[in-house]
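User: Round two. Same drill as before: sequence, then structure, for each protein.

Assistant: Same drill it is. First protein:
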Amino acid sequence: MRILLVTPMPPDRLAPGAVPPLLHAQLTGLARRHAVTLVCVAGPDPAQLEAVARLRAAGFDVQAAERREPAGAARWRRRARFARAWLLHGWPWRTVWYWEPQAQRILDRVLAEQPFDVIAVEDDAAAVYRLAARTPAVLTEHEVGRSRPSATGRRLADLLLERDWRRWPAYQRAACAPFTLVQVFSARDRDRLVALDPGLAERVRITPFGTEVPPPADEPAEPDTLMFAGDYTHPPNVDAAIWLAREILPLIRRRRPDARLRLIGIHAPPEVAALGGLDGVEVLGAVPDLAPYLARAAVVMAPIRTGGGMRMKVLHAMAAGKAVVTTPLGTEGLRGDGAPLPLAVAAGAQELAAAAAGLLADPCACAELGARARAYVVEHHGPEAYARRLERVYEEAVARGPRAVGRA
């Protein structure tokens, strides 16, 4: 197939957060079997521009709207554009940030120069672009709905955050309308999306997500070391880190007094940074490379209680061959065929602590669970397996044809 892939950021297996590594697995898996052209927005973060350069050097067809951090009058013009878009279009701020007029011009040119069998749009932040009306298109909703923002204590900021949050239901309904099919990662997100718009029921497909599989770790794990990693702009990660450090870790330390927890991830808010003052907790924040910290962790914790979408932190740790302790919510988005998952799954703080302490006390059990987890990911969630699942959805979209609905 000839696939046009549209993303709000560059695929990047090295990036923090969940979406860039997912996109990298998608791109690499599909490009081994199909002709893929990528259109994305990159920057102003230099790491995103470097990711585009790596993709091009690897031979991928990448058409990127590259943006640099403006200065002086240009910065004020950008702010004015953001304000107009937020006020006039009714988009949530996240979409306003990722929208780039240059990307629309690139899309118009690419679509005029060559035909595509299907257009794959990743995340509703990229659903605002005009696409070819005669080409079937598939939207992947990375998360249906958004967690309510925490109060900042600043009245105007809290009012704007609340108004922005309330835009999500109407925005997601509108974002899904033009697409032949809509993909989600879990049954929970499918149910949420259909509750938003019952008319979507027959067009929603559940497609468990994928990840890159890193080389096996070449250094041993440190005894009694726990790790949690996440992007703390995502409220469920903030909740998980606080629950883990304040309630679960003390219960683990009753059984394993030397147990220590490393909290890793970008944009840690003050309430997460403050956890570094607790016994056994180290807040590392952003790190240049997660791999060595992952290798040194005896057990990876993912006590997720809220949110939807994918659990990349769980899948990434499994792919690295780590024993993972998580909640039932933390397993969502993994391939559900009824077979037991190679994870330690528990719901409450006591049960999560008991599972983690038991693994810390038995390095052989840790290693065995990690080996099974890695094998599971290779078979069911690596780039090739993910690409095969995507192919089935794309082929169905091609058979159905485009929807006769205009795009903004």
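Second protein:
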Amino acid sequence: MNPPSPAPAQDLATQWAFACRLYPIYFELAREFAIEAQANPDLEASVETPGKEVVEQATHWIDEMDERIQVHQLRQFLQTSSVMNPEAVLALLQHFLAKTPKTDSIRDKIDFLLVQYFSQLAPTGIDDSEVDLGFVAQTLEPVLGQVDLKAPVWLNALDRVLEAARRCKSLDELLHGGVLEQGRKAKGQAGDLFYLPVALTAFTRFGYLMRRSFFRLMLGDLNTILDGLTELEEKGIETIDCRRAQFSDKEPIIRLRMICQSWKVMFQAEYSSGSPLRMLVDLRASVEHALGRGKTPVPAAKDKPAAAAVAPAKPAAAAKPAIAPKPATAAPPPAAAKPALAKSPAPVKPAATTKPAPAASKAAAASASPASAAAKVAPKPAVAAQPKPAPAEAPEFEVSGTPGWDSDSSSGRKN
């Protein structure tokens, strides 16, 4: 099977139409992440009959933003912004599918956007067994048109990875058992064949079902931790050693319970397999060790206790960059991405009075109270802001929300 042909060059009218649709999304995203971006007066005004030079300047503005916006920022923004409805996601998809050449970054953005678009349109109560290639292709028809469902043999590897994910009994198995690496390898080895309509359909199905496996395991780990904390309390134990999870060596059980409950809300709206999920995995190991199960934890020698940083945070009062005067909604540590499983208030970044240790900072971000979200103020200044530092660690695996997911009832959902 031959790779797809390059998309035809867009005429000026099409370029201008795309630029006008993307401009408000990109400008808002720039404010959200303090990405340096000057306002474009012609795009602001949505000029009806722009000249060639105006269109070229607008296209250049969009191309520059494509370079600056990282895939994890796009994920986070799409899952928290009210402007990101299916029509806006469709516009982004059409934009990236038309771009040439397609870099790894563009491929990853297309991959995420397709899964996000499908998630927004998929029925709430759909069972995994109903998400076959034909159903996904039908849902993606506004993006890909009619798809020939005769899948090449190499796409069968995705089903093997999904089956391995279904056999995982914990997040630890999923994150460190090699399953995610197999999925990334399949995407990387596809090369230009990734953009075949049937391959895009298969990878969309794969991403959607993988995220569902993640959420089932995440909820299972949280419930296991909470049950373990109850068992420890019944034994009269009030604190446990949680240095392995970047907390203190005498972490109060009552505080751990509060953190787990806040995580239960937070992980409905955001996800990265970076620090928050590793903390969740390590916290489960710490609780099981305290109950006399599992292996002895080995805390990092230089880790500082994070006990002082895990209480629910108040909204930050720090000054914002000129392009982003609104209070920032919190995210998990820098590499996090945000799925919209259920619409719940996002946690707020704690105000920093002193510079915390890296471990403490991660713990604080992961345990911030969702109830402390601030009202959103969004004027549109045209002043450039200082760019936000790039995250120190890229996410290992990202998912976003499945509409209608119920964290309290999903453990009983049919697989």
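The first helix runs from residue 12 to 33.

User: Perfect.
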